[in-house]
Amino acid sequence: MNKLLFADSAGPSFQKIYGTSHFALAALVPASLVSPPEGAIAKVADVGLAAALTVHNHIALNYVISDYVPRGIQVPVRAGVLGLSVLTAVGLTKLALGGPGIGGAVKELWKAKA
């Protein structure tokens, strides 16, 4: 649990996960947007995107906390970020599996603006 709260300084394994998430996002975002929403590729891309976005954002927000939040309140802020990360994972996974998918939702937003 301590590694999740201090994800920015949790060691080389978390650094490797964070670095890998960049490449995962670079591959999964276009795959999710280009593939047909009903296809297996879209589902796999959307589930991977839900995981990669959550992990990437959680670790990145912990870096922001280390740099900009006063030390005295960092632990409660980190707990809030962990809760937000859990909610993000649940919401994106639900969207990926039970809704139009992450790519499908983005496409619907683009259609609404056009």
UniProtKB/TrEMBL annotation:
Alphabetized Gene3D superfamilies for the sequence: Fumarate reductase/succinate dehydrogenase, transmembrane subunit
Keyword Transit peptide carried by entry: yes
This protein's GO cellular component annotations are: mitochondrial inner membrane
What membrane topology was assigned to this protein in its record? Multi-pass membrane protein
What keyword terms does UniProt attach to this protein?
Iron, Membrane, Metal-binding, Mitochondrion, Mitochondrion inner membrane, Transit peptide, Transmembrane, Transmembrane helix, Transport
A Pfam family: CybS
Q: Which domain of life does this protein belong to? A: Eukaryota
Please list the GO terms describing molecular function.
heme binding; metal ion binding; ubiquinone binding
InterPro entries, alphabetically?
CybS, SQR/QFR_C/D
Quote the subcellular location field of this record. Answer: Mitochondrion inner membrane
One GO process term, biological-process aspect: tricarboxylic acid cycle
Keyword presence, Chloroplast = no
Record-annotated residues binding a ubiquinone?
Answer: 68
Q: Where does heme b bind?
A: 56
Family, as annotated: Belongs to the CybS family.
Name of the molecule in the record: Succinate dehydrogenase [ubiquinone] cytochrome b small subunit
Organism (species)? Chlorella vulgaris (Green alga)
